[in-house]
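Comment thread on ticket #2218

A.B. wrote:
> Attaching the input chain for the structure job we discussed in standup.
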Amino acid sequence: MHRMDVAAFKAAAKCGVTVVLDNVRSMHNVGSVFRTCDAFRIERLVLCGITPCPPMAEIHKTALGAEDSIEWVYAPSALETVMQLKTAGYECWAIEQVEGSVALADFVADPGRKYALVLGNEVKGVAQEVVDACHGAIEIPQYGTKHSLNVSVTAGIVLYEIAGRLLNGR
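C.D. wrote:
> Ran it. Output below, let me know if you need it in another format.
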């Protein structure tokens, strides 16, 4: 299937996106996000607050080794992480349903910019102080009776769209 090995992945160009997990508690969700980040050549994953970190068998169960290919770091605070990323020139976007959010389909990703996308806790979402510190919020419009998606599903949808736009110019 012509897949990259870990060394080739680490050397390959990335899409210019850092993913920040704000207090995501499930190891299975964390592992799934690792795997999704690998699929879309995300540059880095920042695990904040109570978010569990590798090595953990339950993370590995869903990451399937992506915890070895994706560059990742732990940071105690998502808010401090967002502030540092903004200082480093990243546009920071919370993935959250809030007043004034931009629908994912309407979000314009500029290949010349770097982005940080913040995904939040399974119950509480992205902390309000983190949302407030971001440049804005992106939401996935939903048409059923539920008003949220699992954080790993959300990561898959958002990264597919944004990384695809950045890597493929679509």
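A.B. wrote:
> Thanks. Noting for the ticket: The chain has a mean pLDDT of 96.
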